[in-house]
Amino acid sequence: MKIILTNEVNGLGSAGDVVEVKDGYARNYLIPRGFAMRWTKGGEKDVEQIRRARRIREIATLEQANEVKGQLEAVKIKLQTRAGDTGRLFGSVTPADIASAIKDAGGPVVDKRRVALVAPIKTVGSHQVTVSLHPEVSVKLDLEVVAA
Question: Which InterPro entries does this UniProt record tie to the protein (predicted)?
Fold first, then answer.
């Protein structure tokens, strides 16, 4: 089945790409979750809008990525969340939480899909996360999780 990706999908492509996938994968996973839409002749117009939006959002050049890396390294990231008496969190810290904490700390806007966690963060303390800005540029950030 021919589909148009509306979001980046690992191993498949990025938003605006037209790809061929198995029918079941498209019908049961990609389309219901909003990662893709069926390809039609009228959908070709949507492809250009999706690509235009992607170009605006993404970091295109290596210089831009290095500039954002410098901004991220200068920011101290502190995330307040609910925790028990032993320092164990109620739930865990998600990449979306980290992206919003970066923004709240005065850093640049980072897409939550660019934040990579090695293991789930479930305790209070200092943790390290990786943000992939460009295929050649990634930055390791120290995240301080404190109980609210």
Answer: Ribosomal_bL9, Ribosomal_bL9/RNase_H1_N, Ribosomal_bL9_bac/chp, Ribosomal_bL9_C, Ribosomal_bL9_C_sf, Ribosomal_bL9_N, Ribosomal_bL9_N_sf
